Amino acid sequence: MPIALLALTISAYAIGTTEFVIVGLLPTLAADLAVSLPSAGLLVSLYALGVAVGAPVLTALTGKIPRKMLMLGLMALFTIGNLVAWQAPGYESLVVARLLTGLAHGVFFSIASTIAASLVPKEKAASAIAIVFTGLTVALVTGVPLGTFIGQQFGWRTTFLAVSGLGIIAFLGTLMFVPKNVAHSRPATFRQQLGVFAQPRLLLIYAMTAVGYGGTFTAFTFLAPILEQVTGFSTHAVGGVLLAYGVSVAIGNLWGGKLADRHGPIPALKLIFLLLAVVLFVLTFTAGNRWLMLATVLAWGGVAFGNVPGLQVYVVNQAQRFAPEAVDVASGLNIAAFNIGIAIGAWGGGVIVAEIGLIHTAWIGAIVVLVALGLTVWAGKLDQRDREEEADINATPLAVC
User: Fold this and answer.
1) Looking at beta carbons, which pairs linking 314-317 to residues 24 or more positions away fall under 8 Å?
2) Nearest 5°: phi and psi at 359?
3) 150, 185, 235, 267 - which has most CB atoms within 10 Å?
4) CA-to-CA distance for 162 and 218, rounded, in angstroms?
5) Rg (CA), the chain
6) DSSP state letters, 302-349
7) 3-state helix, strand, coil in the chain (%, to 5)
8) In Å, how far are 89, 306, 309, 318, 380 from 203, measured between CA atoms?
């Protein structure tokens, strides 16, 4: 694998830390800012909205900028956003900081996915994307537990200062390792960009992504409060559980990439969505026991992000078929779909917490994931229909002869 993937992974690690560390800090933030848990959970939703806006809009607007220069600019914006969060005096200013950081996040992953796929042979594209997204999962293994610990010991603002340091390291890694001549497809015109929305097959993938992650984040946003208030873990023990969760996610992410390479995106996605729904449903009943909850959290981590490589390689493949002039934009829209799902899931989870209680986020999330499974089965049937039609067309001249 090219060393440029290492630079992308370092940046993904920094971005993943700032995105997910808020989950471990949720009870601390709520107490310090004197807001409710659902209000604190909106910091997850609003960050995701920043990503959703930044991914398609800024990806399109920056289409002519050389990839390396763009990556350096994104990591600079990321660092500034976290410094603003460090100095945020209250809830409203923290919201602004999260939105700013989310803008950088959205463009980074839409571009990083296509760069990673371009650096390796086609048959290794899913694994290359998985390596980049491993930065997110390693952030869950080390960055989130460490950031949670720092926030609990020294205040949540110190966590964002530390993440700013990660941003500087990522900037230097990009400067050193990402080549100047990275493959750069011709920027899509505005008409071509809008054309992506006219492709039902791409819209179906975005729906799969948004619904799948909406179900996941309905429960994941409130994992720390569930561990403390339902399972009975101490505040300090939550960091250890998040560490175990992150290790499991790292393994599951690589497994998901290999599964998509070996069997194709759709079979891999069907299996992972099914397992995810089962785990979330089971969590509803195991949350009251520490050991059973720990086992469930480990299983959850193994499938929670394993569908990322499959979804990204699938949208790139379909974009090459239905919108070949706007592959970057199509990829960016899938990143937006991820985060629209996160935003709606986190918001919906907050409503569930306020109305019926923390634990109900799990089984309701499972139902939402089953909807994503249904959409994936539908996508697979459409692909099969296309293959059969192509086979009939190819066979027709032979029949005439």
Assistant:
1) 314/205, 314/260, 314/265, 314/266, 314/269, 315/202, 315/205, 315/206, 315/209, 316/113, 316/114, 316/117, 316/125, 317/265
2) -65, -25
3) 150
4) 28
5) 21
6) HHHSTTHHHHHHHHHHHHHHH-GGGHHHHHHHHHHHHHHHHHHHHHHH
7) 90, 0, 10
8) 40, 21, 18, 11, 14
* Contact in structure between 111 and 59 (CB atoms under 8 Å): yes
What's the pLDDT at 158?
92
Least-confidence region, from 308-317, 324-333, 346-355 = 324-333
Report pLDDT for 362: 94
Distance CA 125, CA 309 (A): 9
Residue type, 251: I
Confidence at residue 400, expressed as pLDDT on a 0 to 100 scale: 47
Question: Cα(32)–Cα(55) distance, rounded to whole angstroms?
Answer: 31
Residue-level length of the chain: 401
Read out DSSP for 141-182? Answer: IIIHHHHHHHHHHH-HHHHHHHHHHHHHHHHHHHHHHS-TT-
Q: Which of 220, 353, 226, 234 is nearest to 286 (CA)?
A: 226
Instruction: Write out pLDDT tens, residues 93-129.
Output: 888 888 888 888 878 877 787 777 777 777 777 777 7
Question: How far is the C-alpha of 391 from the C-alpha of 389, rounded, in Å?
Answer: 5
Q: Is 376 helix (H, G, I), strand (E, B) or coil?
A: helix
49-94 pLDDT, tens digit per residue, is 887 777 677 777 777 788 888 889 999 989 998 999 898 888 888 8
Contact 105, 1 (CB under 8 A): no
**Structure token digits, residue 93:** 């200013």
Q: Quote the CA–CA distance of 185 and 192 in Å, as a whole number.
A: 13
Structural tokens at position 245: 């969760």
For 297, the token pair is 């959290």
